[in-house]
Amino acid sequence: MGYVKYETKGAVAVVTIDREKALNALNAEVLDDLKATFEGIDTETIRCVIVTGAGEKSFVAGADIAAMSGMDAQGGEAFGKKGNDIFRMIETFPLPVIAAVNGFALGGGCELAMSCDFRICAEQAIFGQPEVGLGITPGFGGTQRLARLVGPGMAKQLIYTAKNIKAAEALRIGLVNAVYPAEELMAAGAGCCPRLQEGNQRGTRAAHGRGHRDRGKALRQLLCDRGPEDGHAGLPRKEEGCELPKPLSYL
Fold it and tell me: CA-CA-CA-CA torsion for 92, 28, 30, 192, nearest 10 degrees?
């Protein structure tokens, strides 16, 4: 793949977003390569997947703003749906997926990390949803996933203020599971995988699938009232008589 590298180490697959000169920013080509890479993983021989970014500065610095600036409304909607569909595919992937965040995880990068089952990061990692500073809202499911990980109040604070946070704060609020020195990050990610492999694979996959099914039900309710026109940026809120949106591929 042109923008995504794929390698295996035993039963561990490593997926690397490889657009280092652009801080691994997401454009349509990167998203297409990411989708094709996950579709090509042999789920019978691989037991877990690690997602990371090329280089030392960035996991994924967000969506490619230069590419987005040339899109009309229809193009922007199609780009948003593409990202949502792919992130949902990662979120519901039949194997555990670990985000090894090695630097900036902003906007779409933070949303990609949140689509993984859990997140570990390097000490220099930076997280944030800066979209409101550009006059837009998080477009790849960030309003919903962030609220479920850190709570609605903290999610609103991070999204409304467009504030970036460091690794220690991300750990404190529950956005990441652990923080490591940069040189230990990938080894730590790989170290999680053998422990996952030691368990009963049937049980692991059943728990993994059940968790996503139950979560999907809750997300359907949370997403009753969403979209850029929403004065609260699509964050969860209770709404009487709300009809569930269809399709739900953007979850």
Answer: -20
Radius of gyration of the chain measured on its C-alpha atoms: 17
CB-CB neighbours of 119 under 10 Å: 27
Compute the distance between CA of residue 210 and CA of residue 196 in angstroms, rounded to an integer.
Answer: 17
Cα separation, 116 vs 118, in Å, equals: 5
Q: Which positions are annotated as active-site residues?
A: 111, 131
**Coil, strand or helix at 24:** coil
CA 30 – CA 96 distance, rounded (Å)? 22
pLDDT in tens, 66-75: 888 788 888 8
Q: Are 177 and 138 in contact (CB under 8 A)?
A: no
- pLDDT of residue 102 exceeding 60: yes
The per-residue b/e assignment along 144-165, b for 16 or more CB within 10 angstroms, e otherwise, is bbbbebbeeebbbebbeeeebb
Element (H, E) at 122: strand 118-122
The number of beta carbons lying within 10 Å of the beta carbon of residue 243 is: 8
Q: Are 57 and 21 in contact (CB under 8 A)?
A: no
pTM, two decimals, is 0.82
Q: pLDDT tens digits, residue range 59-95?
A: 999 988 888 878 888 888 889 899 999 999 999 999 9
Q: How far apart are CA 116 and CA 72, in angstroms?
A: 30
